[in-house]
Every structure is written in structure tokens, then in C-alpha cells.
Design goal:
Elements: H1 2-14, H2 16-53, E1 58-61, H3 71-75, H4 96-104, E2 109-123, E3 126-135, H5 140-143, H6 146-149, E4 150-153, E5 164-168, H7 169-175, E6 182-187, E7 192-201, H8 206-211, E8 212-216, H9 217-224, E9 232-237, H10 243-254, E10 258-260, H11 261-264, H12 266-304, H13 306-314, H14 319-353, E11 356-359, E12 362-366, H15 373-399, H16 403-407
Parallel strand pairs: 3-8, 5-7
Antiparallel strand pairs: 1-9, 1-10, 2-3, 2-6, 2-9, 4-7, 5-8, 6-7, 11-12
Helix pairs in contact: 1-14, 2-12, 2-14, 2-15, 12-15, 14-15
Pfam families: FtsX, MacB_PCD
Keywords: Cell membrane, Membrane, Transmembrane, Transmembrane helix
Main location: membrane
């Protein structure tokens, strides 16, 4: 084995230019494949992160996924009752405080109540349909990114004025309101009150910024015309991926419809399946092209050493040992090229990730990059395997030829 290693390293050092070209080819393929994989996966993870932050991990509403079974349905298998509902149904989640306490006893996260009311904001003779969300400022920071999204004012400012509102910045711009503006809020039930703007927020989701206003839970209950009303519980879990299991348990225990963020964004997540196929296809294509380049360079180097093969066979080395020498040479080139490719890939990721993206609607951001060891391992595996194959096949073919024929140039 020492002889095989010594001969292999001698060949690698003897033709430094060829070796450097081969290493550069491997490093280029590895580096650019790492950069593309990190860029594609990073953009996807950033989108999912924004999607998760823009909504609760689990939303418990006062609706039911299916109507409760009727006595006749429990007694008779053939009985089916559809469209049945009581004459008057009290809106909201029953015993919301007890329900929240029950959920908080086992859920790994936080719970916050809210009251959603549809209304119309009127200011300076402008009427805009708005979704008014009554929140608890003490609990809200535990379940949403609203405190970080506020551009003017603060979440605590909801306590500083009667019927205080925090508007989406686009909604405020649409009606011409600003901090301190007095406006009128009216619901479809005819409830009207005067409110004051105490803050502006920007979520980055145009539909939310255009149509949403936040108020205290008490203000939302007044607009809904029902004291003690809570028609939604929002949860933020320690592990966002555990949302479906938590939602299923909450729905099973309370009977109220519980929707995980994965279910609410099902269409988008299905689109990511196609996007993942595209991502791995692109990265695979880059690795395939790089492996062909690696194969071409190393096989050419091996072919040029046919006379060295003849000399070694003339000295009595068996074919297996000759093949092992050239496979080891190719492996060394592949490993060294992969290591330099790691450095190149990391540098490319840093360079691409430092590019700033600016536009008038969002804060300054950078191109998202995913730093995953899997990208490095996948690129290195393809590079080393292609190098070994590139060294094995020509050496195997040349080792079978008689040394005299090689020396005479009959190859």
C-alpha cells in the first residue's frame, strides 16, 4: 500500500499543471453547485419563515368543522339530518378563559384571544371596508410579530386613548389618516363609535396592510355588540412543525375548528413540492455537468500516462495494483478539488448573501442563503465519485493492454 500511495502522489506532483487544472475543474463544479443549492433553498426557507410569522401557528375559531350529531342519528343508522341550526346562536367561544387555561396547561407555546369584526372606517368623507381585530396587548407579543411591525406609536398606546386603533400603513394612506386622527367606525349592525389612531404598522403583506386595524379586545366586543365575546384564539408554538398535531388535539378536546398554518397555506405548500423538484433538478444538472468535466479531465490525464502503466507492468506490478494507483490519484484530485470547492462555495454564498435588496415598500433585506452541511456533502460526494470513475475506467482499459503494445504506440 505504501508503494501504491508513493507512486500515486509522485504522479500527482510530477505534472503540477495538469493536476491544478483537474483540481480547479472539480472545485468550480462543487463551489457553484453549493451556491445554487444554498440560494434556492434559502429563498424557499425565507418565504416559509415570512409565511409562518405572518399568521398564527394554530387558529381556533368559534366555528365547528362538522355539526354536532343529533339524537336521531345516534339511534338510527339510516337517519341523516342536514342544514339544522338553532334559531339563535350565541357567537364566540364559550368560556374563553377556561378554554385558554386548558390549552395553556399542555401546549408548548402561548395563546392569545382576539375578536374579529368587519366594519367601515370613515375619515374625511372616505369610507373603507376594514377588518378590525381586538387584541390583548399583553399577550399579543407572544403570538405574533405585530410589536416589531409597528412603524409609529406602540402596542401599549392602545391603552392611552378611548377606542384606540393601530392601522396598517397602507390603510392609513388610503383614507389620509395619521397619528392622532379621529375617525368613525361603523359595523353592519349599526354600531358606531369614534376612534383615535395611535399607531401605524406594516406587516409586508399587502392585503393585511390595506384592510386591517387593531384595537383592544374590549373595543372589538363593543363593535360586535356582545360583551365577553372572543371568536378566535391564536397560538404560537415553540415548534411550528408541531402545529397539525396541536390543532388536532385542540379540536378533539374543545370541538371548535382548529386550523394549523400548514392547512391554511396548503396551496402554497403544494406549490413548494414542484419548486423542490425544480431546485434539485437544477442542482443535479450543475453537478452532472461538473462531473462530466471532472471525468473528462482526469480520464485524459490517466490516458496520457499509458506509458507509465506499461513501465509499471513491465516491472511486474499486477493489473489490480496499477488500477489502484490511478484510482487513488483520481481520488486525491477529487478530494482536494472538493475541499477547494467548499472554500469557493462558501465565498460565493457570502458574496451573494451580502447583496442588498431595496424597494420603497419593505425594509432593506439581503438575498436569503441556506447554510446546510447537506449541500457540501452532496456536492463532495458527486465530485469524488465522478473522479474515482474517471480514474478507474481508463486505467482499467489501459492495464489490460500488453506493455509492449503500449510502448510501441499501439494503444
Amino acid at each position: 500500500m505504501n508503494l501504491v500511495l508513493d507512486v500515486a502522489l509522485t504522479h500527482v506532483r510530477a505534472r503540477a499543471r495538469q493536476t491544478l487544472v483537474a483540481v480547479a475543474g472539480v472545485a468550480t463544479g462543487v463551489g457553484f453547485s453549493i451556491m445554487m443549492a444554498a440560494l434556492l433553498q434559502g429563498s424557499q426557507e425565507d418565504f416559509i419563515r415570512q409565511l409562518v410569522n405572518a399568521m398564527p401557528h394554530v387558529a381556533v375559531s368559534d366555528e365547528r368543522r362538522a355539526p354536532p350529531p343529533q339524537p336521531a342519528e345516534e339511534v338510527y343508522d339510516a337517519a341523516r339530518i342536514h342544514g339544522l341550526k338553532p334559531e339563535a346562536r350565541r357567537r364566540g367561544i364559550k368560556n374563553p378563559l377556561a378554554t385558554m387555561a386548558s390549552i395553556e396547561a399542555w401546549v408548548p407555546g402561548a395563546v392569545a384571544p382576539s375578536v374579529k369584526v368587519q366594519g367601515i372606517l370613515r375619515y374625511a368623507s372616505r369610507d373603507v371596508a376594514t377588518s378590525i381585530v381586538g387584541i390583548d396587548p399583553n399577550r399579543e407579543p407572544l403570538v405574533s410579530e405585530l410589536p416589531k411591525q409597528i412603524r409609529q406609536g406602540s402596542l401599549g398606546a392602545l391603552y392611552t386613548a378611548t377606542n384606540a386603533l393601530i392601522l396598517g400603513d397602507r390603510l392609513a394612506e388610503k383614507i389620509g389618516a395619521r397619528l392622532g386622527s379621529k375617525l368613525t367606525v361603523q359595523t353592519s349592525d349599526g354600531i358606531r363609535l369614534t376612534a383615535q389612531v395611535v399607531g401605524l404598522f406594516r406587516s409586508g403583506v399587502r392585503q393585511v396592510d390595506d384592510t386591517t386595524a387593531y384595537a383592544l379586545v374590549k373595543t372589538g366586543q363593543i363593535l360586535a355588540g356582545q360583551t365577553g365575546l372572543v371568536n378566535e384564539l391564536r397560538l404560537r408554538l415553540d415548534d411550528a412543525l408541531a402545529a397539525p398535531a396541536a390543532a388536532a388535539r385542540i379540536e378533539r378536546e374543545t370541538g371548535y375548528k382548529s386550523v394549523a398554518w400548514q392547512e391554511a397555506s396548503e396551496d402554497l405548500l403544494n406549490a413548494f413540492v414542484v419548486r423542490n423538484v425544480i431546485m434539485y433538478t437544477v442542482v443535479g444538472a450543475i453537478l452532472l455537468v461538473a462531473s462530466f468535466g471532472t471525468y473528462n479531465i482526469i480520464s485524459t490525464i490517466t490516458h496520457e500516462k499509458a506509458r507509465d502503466i506499461a513501465i509499471m507492468k513491465s516491472l511486474g506490478l499486477p493489473e489490480r495494483t496499477v488500477r489502484r494507483i490511478f484510482v487513488l490519484e483520481a481520488g486525491v484530485i477529487g478530494v482536494v478539488g472538493a475541499l477547494f470547492g467548499f472554500v469557493l462555495g462558501y465565498a460565493l454564498c457570502v458574496a451573494v448573501g451580502s447583496i442588498e435588496i431595496t424597494n420603497p415598500f419593505t425594509d432593506v433585506t439581503h438575498i436569503p442563503i441556506s447554510w446546510s452541511p447537506r449541500h457540501y456533502a452532496m456536492a463532495a460526494a458527486v465530485a469524488v465519485v465522478s473522479s474515482l470513475v474517471a480514474g478507474l475506467l481508463p486505467a482499467r482499459r489501459a492495464a489490460r493492454v500488453h506493455p509492449v503494445e503500449i510502448i510501441r504506440g499501439a494503444t
